[in-house]
Write the structure tokens for this entry.
Amino acid sequence: MNFPMTLRIALKALGRNKMRSSLTMLGIIIGVGAVIAMIAIGSGAKARIQEQIASMGSNLLIVLSGSATSGGIRYGSGSVPTLTVEDSKAIASELSAVKYAAPVLQGVAQIVFGNQNWATITFASTPEVLLIRDWPVVKGRSIIQSDVEGAAKVCLLGQTVADNLFGDIDPVGQVVRVKQFPFTVVGVLSTKGQTTWGQDQDDVVYVPLTTGQRLLFGQQFPGMVRSIAVQATGPDTMNLAEDQITGLLRQRHRIRANQDNDFSVRNLTEAMSAAEESAKVMSILLGAIASISLLVGGIGIMNIMLVSVTERTREIGIRMAVGARGRDILWQFLVEALVLSLIGGIIGIILGVGASQLISQMFKWPTLISINALLLSFSFAGGVGIFFGFYPARKAAQMDPIEALRYE
Amino acid sequence: MSELIRVEHLAKTYFLGEVQVPALKGVDLTIQAGELLAIMGASGSGKSTFMNIIGCLDRSTQGSYFLEGKDVSGLTRDELARIRNQKIGFVFQSFNLLGRTSALENVELPLFYDHTSSRERHQRAMEALTIVGLQGREHHLPSQLSGGQQQRVAIARALVNKPSLILADEPTGNLDTRTSLEIMDIFQKLNQASGITIILVTHEPDIALYVSRQVVFRDGKVIKDDHFQPRKAAEDLSQAPAPVEEGGA
């Protein structure tokens, strides 16, 4: 018996018991739908975290200056300016695992344009900082080396700042006041969005390092910077870069072997990777729970196929009498189980995709549906059909034709 | 006439737990191609067991069975299925048609397992339905047909693969006298027109009048094997009472 014919017979047999067939399918529909929705939720979360990691800049290390201790009170990291511009230059030029390094000064400053004003974090740094953070300019130009050398009164605005101060006006070329000094806006940065913890990365202003040192953040400690942003040469060299920086700075700061570091190196990507890992675990967990319902659906198929085989004992007997071999009967019932599970799988996919759209609409939760997830759950449904259909089909195939014909 | 069936010392014993039940105790029988014969006997005489073995639905425990000169006693399940498909047509007392399946598709059924193309399948099934006088009813479901018509569909199904042997197990057991005569008429005509061998199993002496050979079983052995001149079903049919309205009563 060839396949199209077997398929036709299977469809006909299933059509005879529409209610029963659709209820059996429902198990698979729910199973596949749940698997797809859960995978969509899990990978949506993962994708969002990956996006955030990418928005921070890739292979990013932050070197923070040390903490101060005064009369038993310990201040946090960065409270003592132990890092210098020279440290940053040494890191950039001497270390093999480091691609770029940029010294950073920062503080909150009030920015005024016309009758608008806005308080934001102002960073003073070298042009490399935007390379490190993977942050292109969408309008105007970036800060360039000559700005730093000449301590030019220019600034780059983050998208949030530009929106709040200028609205619809093109900010490039306009003059804003930062701490009462006039700065020309030379460019606007592209949108980066929020960090994992909800901080708006676009609420920021960049000025040249030297300008920041002289005008905005004072010269309390000449040549001192609050932190150094570092980009390692690749994801694999992150740890090496961290070790090299530590070694270099301990040497430069003349720290003896038994003394603590007067700086700290933060690996932000690592923290995010942990978050990504937990999203992955969540995704697997959700998928596994959903798979259980698919499994239950499979047991439903087996149950119904067993009933069907018993009910149709006489039909099996007739088919055997006119020359059906065991394998013809096996195929017939296996194809029936397969058709049940695959049709269920297709409906389940539609339902799962719909459900994940609904979830992302209603709960503002990002969902991501990949072709792989669809193919996987579809073939999983088929596998369930074959696995749970095999036993009833084999039972049918091994019937004795005489007894099957006599069955009432 | 050539030899179609030869069985030698055929024996079948059923094992029901510890108890051994002998159903056939050494049967020797030869059936020529083109015979129309009846196997008779009370229930428990072994005639059904004999039928099942002849029909390749069952295997003997002892002895040998030659069908068209070939020993089929040692064949596998699949090989027996092949022989049933190619060489044997079955007609049962309870018709055994597939419900909710048209007469045409019921007749086509053996060809499904024979890799016949759909066009040829349709054509041969229509021919077989014409032979049994059911042209025009090919799309009826069994539930829309009378008992006699259902049995004719079953005969068409038995014919469709052009078998060398038709085995009919109490084919008239569920039918009234007139319809039984009609069925016997079909068998007689098939036997004469195409020389097909037909073996009937029956316990009705009336029916056995229309065959040319009666083999009587008792206690698992052949006790009588007579040849004689059969009655013509067609003649008796013309004198029988008028047919009951189709689908009525």
User: Anything to note?
Assistant: The longest strand of chain A covers residues 98-113. Chain A has two domains: 3-52+274-406, 81-261.
